[in-house]
Protein 1
Amino acid sequence: MPSPRYRREMPQRYRLEAAKCKKCGKLFFPPRLVCAACGSKGFDKTKLSETGTIISYTIIRVAPADFATQVPYAIAIVESDNGARLTTQVVDCKPEDLEIGKKVKFVFRKLYTEGHTGIICYGYKAVLV
Amino acid sequence: MREVAVIGCGMTKFGELWEKSLRDIFVEAALKAIDDAGVDHIDSMYVGAMTPGLFVGQEHISALMADYLGVAPIPAMRVESACCSSGMALRLGLFEISSGHSDIVLVGGVEKMNDGADATYALATAADQEYEVYQGVTFPGLYALIARAHMHRYGTTRKQLAAVSVKNHHNGAMNPNAQFQREVTLEQVMNATLVADPLTVLDSSPVSDGAACVVLTSVDFAKQLKAPLVKILGSGAATDTLALHSREDITALKAVKVSGEVAYKMAGVKPSDIDVAEVHDCFSIAEICIIEELGFTEKGKGGPFTEQGNTALEGKIPVNPSGGLKSKGHPVGATGIAQVVEVVEQLRGKAGKRQVKNATIGLTQNMGGSGASSVTHIFKI
Ligand SMILES: [Zn+2]
């Protein structure tokens, strides 16, 4: 990923920064400028809960070039305890350990290296709790 | 508002077309459609394509195709909406004629995915780059997430998913334009190499080259031409969140439901009036969700409905008589118009061995990404 794009997303990827609609209370990750639920434009800065629940999961067996050396790896849609959803890898577990409804905790990890000379890309992953 | 009809259609064979270029396959399909329509000119054209820039390094293909088709200086425009690029392009052709701006419009779609590009990467650009693809998600992965949730919630089985591929390969085996003209068994689908659990390579549409075109005109003008006339009764399009995870219910394809409802309303028909449908089975689970959203069966019942043969050629509502994206192939930008080509041939009674009996009303549904955009059209002969 080109570095300017990477840098802009760091607050979300490193610190799970999110935005809560001042009017209706809906939580957005990543933050956005207009509330998709009520149309309001006022938000409070907040953070995702550091734990959540697996909504669905899969094991990726055929990956894009950046992730080719990591296969097979688990990907899940997780709902944070304060109600925002995201897509994340689930690591440090066997594929057969995963189940819909299981609890996870977000951790800070390396995601991939950008080619041979590019930056190392970091962000959140999840582990089972 | 003028009524609009499809008066000509044409497509290339879908598959790995190593000897033909992007421009050649589009021109081949366009010439077939123009010849089929029996018109001596077109006033304007729309070209649906997802990402020729990534696949073959070529953008600005609207002008390129007008140039190579020998129709410059007519206006030409490219339409991009991921895998439903040409389905969306059809709407623009429809609007241009119904508004009276043009009399004869060519609408086509094209994609050349086998020229050496990283197809997994190129296709993934239709998902959320920063919050899905960054984590290592692929398109099979997104549909696998939908499949797992659908199985968990509704009890959809691995075998029911496989039944979609078996049915579509059965139909595709009778389609001379299909990429894979051969049957597969339930066991072959279920035991094939896993791509993203629980989906195997035989749940997935292939990487394909191909083009498809139709010629549209007003119904009044079509009558003067004495061309075989298939009316466009309804058109609906809708969007949903780009990221799958942002949806309240990841088993629901809301854009499909809304695009269907709008098209049904405009056409003045209901799901039970449809005689034949071509839908966006990019993965087996997609067809199951789509037939639910279009109202062919209840939400959650798409698996058993398929397993019981209701969507087979001789079933209650034949779905994907062409073989669908799975067997016919899925050159992403061409798929939406290729669906229209199939439905027009079915309504004309010219679909050969895969002909659906007594079909008079047909539907096409074309989808982008993991369902963030959908377009539905309804046709009548
Ligand atoms: Zn709000």
Protein 2
Amino acid sequence: MMTNKRLRQFIEYLSRQNIVWAPQRIGGELVMERVSDPKNVELSSELPLHSFKKILVPPQEALFNYENNKIFPAVNPPGQVIFGLTVVDLKAVTFLNQIFAKDPHFQNRLKKALIIGQSLMPKGKHQFFLEKFEEDVLEHLKFDVFLAAQKDKFLVYTGSEDGQRILDDFGHKDYEHIEYVGPIREAGLDSQMQKIRGKFYEDDKIWQDLGKICIECGKCTLICPCCFCFDIFDQPDLKAGAGKRCRAWTACFYTDFSEVAGREIEKKKPKFLRSTPERIRFWYEHKFVRCPDEISLPGCVGCGRCTKVCPVGIDIKENLQRILKGKLK
Amino acid sequence: MLNPYIPKLARIIKIADQTPDVKLFTLEFADRKDRAEFSFTHGQFVMAGLLNFGEAAFEICSSAIKTKTFDLAVGRIGDLTEKLHQLKTKAVMTIRGPFGNGLAEKFYQNKELLLVGGGRGLIVMRSFILDYLAGALPAKKVNVFYGCLDEKNLLFKNEYKIWRKKFGLDICLNKPEKSWLGQRGVITVLFNDKQDFTDTVALIVGPPVMYKFVIEELQKRGLKDEDIFVSLERRMYCGIGVCQHCAIGPYYVCKDGPVFSWAQIKGIPGAI
Ligand SMILES: Cc1cc2nc3c(=O)[nH]c(=O)nc-3n(C[C@H](O)[C@H](O)[C@H](O)COP(=O)(O)OP(=O)(O)OC[C@H]3O[C@@H](n4cnc5c(N)ncnc54)[C@H](O)[C@@H]3O)c2cc1C
Ligand code: SF4
Ligand code: SF4
Ligand code: FES
């Protein structure tokens, strides 16, 4: 058990020697930000609007550096602490860990990060796929330390050696270790995910309807903790012959996403996702068709952030219910 | 952990003009180990680039059995390709790959292989052609249908004489000069009712508009959807099925393609 007071000391201890990211209220909105004063850290069931994503999958990063036709590995990321992730966001970390299983940039960053989760379950109106917190979900989540809230104390779990080490160093010995066994439960694949996959192509009219209102701002993709698609490009340095090859976030809603070189038709380059309905279907298709097919996980953890930020009120929870209804008979 | 984004370096050892805007580059890996390890299946591609200018997908269009050097035919069409056209021999390019699924031999072993190329689609065909000429392709016979805009845009022109000694090469031009004696019109004019496709596997590569019409011609002549293959083009960045740019329905063109059987993708909206 860790008392509230001891937890505060733990956060202070962590911030003394590390970069710590934690939920804090800034301008009225709870966001994941760098901690300058540990007192501002807010541990609650509310999901921070901005997730951990920018920390583990930076908006832009160098894949390698080059100079005079020689290639140099990108600089190592710093170690940092990501504090206070809810189970919903830990699911997103676990999802990204599968997507980037063979990506040394992500793996390196994750390995060097200390991930501290907590059990308060979000209960905002936009959320879905939620269950009550139960201890047996922990072996399927990536974390280093996990705090399970009791009345005014926390049960402490560790999910890695790094987690054990930091607690030992801090002087907290009372924890239980839980070995990560992979993201899929013994009971098998998520039944909701399989149902959506099975019915995905039944009602095509939904995309026409959504296409009429979506303004392709891309906010939903930027805010989504599971969205990760990227461009790759070179960024030349001022020094001749030097620079770096980078990758950076993009959004499948942007019209250049599928654009290819070639003869322009009506001043537009040829592209394969030609209309808003095609683009919005592509986004859902990634999350509910391709991700389940590839890694047996949906590319959505039900956090509801996309609904919250959508300027025209597109609600993913409603849309999934409509997909589940299937063919209109 | 292997970093899939770190390219190998290759030196350009020969550049040959093909048409006013296509050049054929012959490349050799700078590192001896890379040279020894390089192998690919016909129809696979590489992500080739130039430091400071990024990378893009190009078909490997040389022999798959002689891989000490390899060829890329590059059409000048945008920023990177413009820059590549300015290069001289000895310049260094970055190479990642080969990526994706080409057309494996098992699909056309002891069958006739019909290669239908429109425009730059012929680039994909060259590796099949060169290995068939060398007696190293297990197809019973090869036929090539090639549709092109006009005579000055014909690719690999100086090789036709050798090619024609071993297989049929039927060409039609869309907008030929008056002096052109061959066939005229779009590529479907090359199909006629005397052709026998009972034992044939076809590979189609060309501009998107072409696929539907060629597939119809082949189906009319009894080809099964499993024996019709297409190679698709999409915007690409990662080449390994992560970045999402090249996705079609449940598939990635970079990883599951670029060569797909028509049976595999015919139900996917927007695939062709
Ligand atoms: C599997 C495959 C094989 C190909 N093989 C060949 C070949 O053998 N010879 C050849 O000349 N061309 C080939 N292409 C097309 C070639 O990749 C494009 O012509 C090239 O990307 C144009 O780049 P650019 O910078 O000159 O054009 P720009 O219009 O300046 O391109 C800007 C960016 O868009 C992207 N892009 C543009 N067009 C394409 C495209 N068609 N495919 C993928 N990304 C694109 C690139 O990332 C590029 O960085 C192939 C494409 C694919 C997908
Ligand atoms: S936030 Fe809403 S309007 Fe913007 S791209 Fe997403 S669905 Fe469309
Ligand atoms: S609810 Fe929306 S923002 Fe949250 S994971 Fe699903 S798609 Fe992403
Ligand atoms: S090029 Fe990135 S997914 Fe195909």
